[in-house]
Amino acid sequence: MMKNIKLTAFDMDGTLLNDRKELPPDFPAWVKNHPQIRKVIASGRQYYTLRDNMGELKDEFLYVAENGGVVYEKEEALYCDEIPSEDLRYCVDRLNRMEGVTPMLCGVKGAYIRQDTKAAVFKEASMYYHRLTKCENVMEEALKDRIVKIAIFVENYQVNKAAAAFADLPERLAVVVSGDSWIDIANASANKGAGIAAIQRKYQIKPEECMAFGDYLNDVELLKSCGESYCMENGHPRLKEIARHIAPSNNECGVMQVINQLPFNV
Length: 266
Description:
This protein is α/β, with parallel strands linked by helices. Helices cover 31% and strands 26% of the residues. It is built from eleven helices and 14 strands. The chain has helices at 12-16, 27-33, 47-54, 85-96, 119-128, 138-142, 159-164, 192-203, 220-224, 237-242, 254-259; strands at residues 7-10, 38-42, 61-65, 70-73, 76-80, 101-107, 111-114, 132-135, 147-154, 173-177, 182-187, 210-214, 228-232, 245-247. The chain has an eight-stranded mixed β-sheet. Strands 8-7-6-9-11-10 form a six-stranded mixed β-sheet, sandwiched between helices. The two termini are 14 Å apart. The mean pLDDT is 94.
């Protein structure tokens, strides 16, 4: 069955990248030596950041970005789970009345943040969002785009408190703690698995012909969308229960240890 793999999907942080945020040294050669396999980067990061991250390999991949909110191929968005404008306004209005939070609206064309954002917060956000625009009127700019996620920087690491403030959101929206200073709001239907499904539909690839690697709970749907699923040894215990296989840790180039042993069709 392994010989029939037609798509491989990789989470970035904690999976493909080691803790120093480095790609495995032999990954570029593997990518170029397997043109018959569709290769997907599936990440919570912005598409434009991911393309920069992949350097000379950037055109070798499809990208499931913003945790599945949007899928890109050759700089074209082929799938987008856009947040309705009324839900966007509702969330932003609430955020504007809260202290210690900075919302960033993440769309297909870029991300948008308030003009008066603190320098330290803007610097932090810019690490993950390479196409980030300061705006006098964030909503006005965002409505010219298709917004798939609200990323919220929370000061003083009060993410659980901030997330709890949105516990009463409609079920069609989901709130996720995505880091020690970040929470995300997106459509409940937006996840990496939905992005992979869009690619599978376009290219008529069956789930059993797909392989995925992940390490954290935002990879649950990613792993479920692929017949051959791997959780990294450093991954979350709950994800290990879902995965069919366990790969060595990200710091041991675990992804490469697995794919270098597989007899892919050439």
